[in-house]
Design goal:
This protein has 410 residues and is mainly α. It folds into three domains: 101 residues, no CATH class; 95 residues, DNA polymerase, domain 1 (Orthogonal Bundle), CATH 1.10.150; 174 residues, hpI Integrase, Chain A, CATH 1.10.443.10. The chain is built from 18 helices and three strands. It has a three-stranded antiparallel β-sheet, with no helix packed on it. It starts with a helix and ends in a 10-residue tail after the last helix. About 5% of the residues have low confidence.
Amino acid sequence: MFENIVSATPALARHRNGPLATERDRYLRHCADQGSTLETLRLRARSILWVAEHMSPDDIGQVDASRLHEIVHGAASLATSMPAPATAATLVNFARPWLKYLGWWHAPEEPIPFAPSLDRFVAWMRDERGLTQCTIDQWRYRTAKFLLWCGTTGHDLATLQPQDIDAYFITYGAQRWSRTSAGQVANMLRVFLRHAATTGACSATLAGSIQGNRRYALESLPYALSWDDVRRVIATAGGDGERDIRDRAILLLLAVYGLRRGEVASLRLDQIDRVAGRLYIWRLKRRQPQVYPLVPSVAQALGRYIDDVRPRVAHAEIFIRVQAPRTPIRATAMYTIVSNRLRPLGIQAAHLGPHALRHSCAAKMLADGLTLKEIGDHLGHRSTSATMTYTKVDMASLRQVGDFDLGGLL
């Protein structure tokens, strides 16, 4: 691999003969497969070679953050050979993923108090409740934060009292959560503590003592954008570059079909039948597939991305990162993709992420006279009540776009 990166004979010899040559070569091949540019590969190769030359035999197999800092910055007696701050940062930033790739990076996680209770809760959500992985991850994260707070404040789960729960909301959550988030945390804690009580980890009456804040149906502002704004957003992705072509297909899927961010991120090549004109979506909440007609404008956008600019990677997912590593985009990246195109337009809305386009799709269908049941089926809702939020719309504005074709966004 070194000969593909370095051309000068002395430099090539240094890379080939330097320490950990096999490990460096294997990692650079991996980076090349992930889409790293030649310039990035050269900088990466120089950085990990420098680090390898300064590692000791004791570092083989295990390096932590403190040791990597010591390797890069050197001991006090070698202060004169220390790299400049910017160079040191580059060395660390390139060495860390190399060591992780080799399995040599040692990063001890902060121990979570009452970890067995957390592990049992996660297993219960996964094996008995059958919750989606996204929900499990979110609830585990929230529960772990609560248990860490208990540990750092000296509270024992077995002797926890209702006033301790109040203190958690007051001292920890007051500066971090909105009213909606606080209500979600309260609900999560009730479920966790109810489960923990079944194993004897806490009092059986504790969960019932948690009172969520009062919220009213449809109290929040609507998320939906006007269709003029939807057109403007999609028009921002009208260029010929890979990012614009990819983002245009993503925006159309969100607006026309009202897909969730995770449904777009997980969309695979075999879920699109361009010959038959069908789109197969696995609905996350319903846990069942749903078949849609492939709208011509969406088919054209997907075809242009897949056929013309999508990188040649082994991944089955359709949408791939523009920068290396060339891996499928994550669901969390959808917010950045959408908000980066909404914010420069100065659009005012309660939410500036992918869910705004999902709401816009629902609001348009409502304006066209579809029933809540029909809208819910289109969006993959499990119940009509979940669709009620989309009735919070500006009917005067909707009448202006009542004849708009969902597929006519181009």
